[in-house]
Amino acid sequence: MSVESKHIATFLLGAAAAFAAHKYMTMTPEEKEKLAQNLKDKAHQFKSEAENAADKAKDYFAELKTKGSEAFKEHFGDVEGMFHNLFNKGEKPSDTPEAPIA
Questions:
Q1: Is 84 exposed, middle or buried (CB count within 10 Å of its CB: 0-12, 13-18, 19+)?
Q2: Distances 20 to 14, 23, 28, 34, 35 between C-alpha atoms, Å
Q3: What is the CA radius of gyration of the chain?
Q4: One-character DSSP codes across the chain
Q5: Confidence of residue 69 (pLDDT cuts 50, 70, 90)
Q6: What confidence tier does 73 reach under pLDDT thresholds 50, 70, 90?
Q7: Given this model, what pLDDT does residue 40 score?
Q8: CA torsion sign, 12 to 14 to 18 to 20?
């Protein structure tokens, strides 16, 4: 039977959990309260940072949507005509769509 890396990782994770449980059980009630308050503060800070990041991402994608399309139009202004010429082999582009073949 060979020892794989996942077995070693499981053993190390179990050892770390056992050490943390022992450390917590030997803490005084004041230290436990301080630890709980510290974890709560970090969780609230993480939550507020995540909410700010979500708001920034929403604004970023809205800005990217408007500015990206403007930049695309600026650099590739006649891309519609270019695609029409490419796929319709030089026919003149028309504003009305073609009727489907019955």
A1: middle
A2: 10, 5, 14, 16, 12
A3: 31
A4: -PPPHHHHHHHHHHHHHHHHHHHHHTS-HHHHHHHHHHHHHHHHHHHHHHHHHHHHHHHHHHHHHHHHHHHHHHHSTTHHHHHHHHHTTTPPP-SSPPPPP-
A5: confident
A6: confident
A7: 97
A8: positive
Sole residue written with tokens 């026919």? 91
- Spatial contact of 24 and 32, defined as CB atoms under 8 Å apart: yes
Percent of the chain with pLDDT over 70: 84
